[in-house]
């Protein structure tokens, strides 16, 4: 069982939540968002912990993986903090807005011994496969 904390309850979070719920062995344990209204709506996802502050969610020892669904410009800080807290990271694309920021995320995950995955949901679309070929 992998316990997941999701940060950012915008549009893309719905897809992450459905994916988590569809895969045996994954559990949505907590969600985090700065918007109290979105947090209130998150109660519909079941008995999960609600956090308005990311740093508090990172202190939850039950959470093993952080799914980052926030706006692109915020990924670097969240990814690095998650890695430093010993949490594996799934990050929406783009990983960062610059090469050096992406390198910082990758290095932080490597240094802290956690896995990093950047979402690439279009990698199996026919035009992408054709381009790759």
User: Rg to the nearest angstrom?
Assistant: 15 Å
Helix content: 25-40%
Q: Helix segment count?
A: 6
Residue ranges: pLDDT <50 for 5 or more in a row?
Answer: none
Largest sheet features: 6 strands, parallel
The quaternary organization reads as single chain
Mean pLDDT: 92
Structural class: alpha/beta
Distance between the termini: 36 Å
Strand order of the largest sheet: 3-2-1-4-5-6
Number of strands: 6
Which series of helices and strands comes N to C? EHEHEHEHEHEH
Strand content: 15-25%
Name the overall outline: globular
Question: In words, what does this structure look like?
Answer:
The chain has six helices and six strands; from the N terminus they run E-H-E-H-E-H-E-H-E-H-E-H. It is α/β, with parallel strands linked by helices and 133 residues long. Strands 3-2-1-4-5-6 form a six-stranded parallel sheet, sandwiched between helices. Helix 4 links the parallel strand 4 and strand 5. Helix 4 (75-84) packs parallel to helix 5. The radius of gyration is 15 Å and the shape is globular. The mean pLDDT is 92.
Main traits of this protein?
6 helices; 6 strands; 133 residues; alpha/beta; six-stranded parallel sheet
What is this structure's SSE topology?
Elements: E1 2-7, H1 11-22, E2 26-32, H2 36-41, E3 49-51, H3 54-58, E4 65-68, H4 75-84, E5 88-91, H5 99-111, E6 116-118, H6 126-132
Parallel strand pairs: 1-2, 1-4, 2-3, 4-5, 5-6
In brief:
By secondary structure, the chain is α/β, with parallel strands linked by helices.
């Amino acid at each position: 069982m992998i316990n997941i904390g999701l940060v950012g309850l915008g549009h893309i979070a719905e897809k992450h939540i459905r994916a988590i719920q569809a895969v045996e062995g994954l559990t949505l344990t907590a969600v985090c968002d700065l918007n109290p209204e979105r947090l209130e709506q998150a109660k519909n996802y079941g008995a999960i912990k609600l956090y308005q502050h990311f740093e508090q969610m990172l202190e939850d020892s039950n959470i093993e993986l952080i799914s980052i669904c926030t706006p692109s410009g915020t990924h670097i800080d969240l990814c690095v903090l998650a890695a430093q807290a010993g949490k594996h990271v799934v990050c929406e694309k783009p990983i960062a807005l610059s090469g050096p920021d992406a390198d910082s995320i990758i290095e932080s995950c490597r240094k802290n011994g956690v896995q990093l995955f950047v979402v690439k949901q279009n990698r199996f679309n026919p035009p992408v496969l054709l381009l790759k070929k």
